[in-house]
Amino acid sequence: NVKIIHRVNENDMKREKSINIEPLLIETMKIADIVVFVSEWMEKYFIDKYKLKLNSTHIINGCDESIFFPPSNKSFDKNKKIKIVTHHFSSNYLKGFHIYNQIDKLLDKQSNFEFTFIGNYNENYKPKNIKIVNACNGKKLADKLRKFDIYLTATQYEPGAMHYLEGISCGLPVLFCINGGGTKEVCKKYGEEFKDIKTFQEKLEKMINNYSDYYNKIDYNYLGKKRCCKEYLEIIKNI
């Protein structure tokens, strides 16, 4: 008689070595009263791949609004060097290093922006021009993020992560890469999608020239944990 809500935030796509997690997840899905995926992309991925018939929905994650919030006196000058940032604890190559490595080389020739990476950089490439900052979280991370202009995520096949939510919540419009999985569902509201290093440059220029348009669209209530928790509570009430 116990009601089961199964939240799914993982698959095997991004693992360098499969741990065969998907069959285990599906076994639990079959006995759950409702399955909650962390993105519509994840929901579609499992249902289409395994031809599942589920009582399912998706709820986008939310971050702590008391920690991740915009600066009180945001200023932006497009004539100054633009400060771009990303943060990843994982050094998995699919976290976006196919783009970050190219940006490092681009910075040999281009100087209208700088790029800071907070976290653990992939060990197969040693960047020369990217500023590397040790991984951190919570208030320390948020204080750092608020000092930048634009957030970048090039992560691939992402089930539904927190990093871009945290970046946007700190008042940063976002550049995000094609094939980002669940990333697009949030980032498309507050930034621009690119597919390679050429279109990255084009979309960066567009964002710089129209910065206030992107900044003013950010919906901090949507990005926060209160909205997320409310959606889960509605499921609990109605199950």
Structural description of this entry:
With 239 residues, this protein is of the alpha/beta class. The chain is built from ten helices and nine strands. Strands 6-5-4-7-8-9 form a six-stranded parallel beta sheet, sandwiched between helices. It has a three-stranded parallel beta sheet with strand order 1-2-3. α1 (21-31) links the parallel β1 and β2.
State Rg. Answer: 19 Å
Shape: globular
The proportion of residues in beta strands is 15-25%
For the secondary structure, the number of strands is 9
Order of helices and strands: EHEHEEHEEHEHEHEHHHH
Coarse structural class: alpha/beta
The mean pLDDT is 95
Uncertain runs are none
Helical element count?
10
Share of helical residues:
25-40%
End-to-end span in angstroms? Answer: 12 Å
Which strand order spans the largest sheet, edge to edge or round the barrel?
Answer: 6-5-4-7-8-9
Largest sheet: 6 strands, parallel
Helices and strands, with pairings:
Blueprint (H helix, E strand, L loop, with lengths): L4 E4 L12 H11 L2 E4 L2 H11 L5 E3 L23 E7 L8 H10 L6 E7 L11 E3 L4 H8 L4 E4 L9 H7 L4 E4 L5 H5 L3 E4 L2 H13 L1 H7 L2 H4 L1 H14 L1
Parallel strand pairs: 1-2, 2-3, 4-5, 4-7, 5-6, 7-8, 8-9
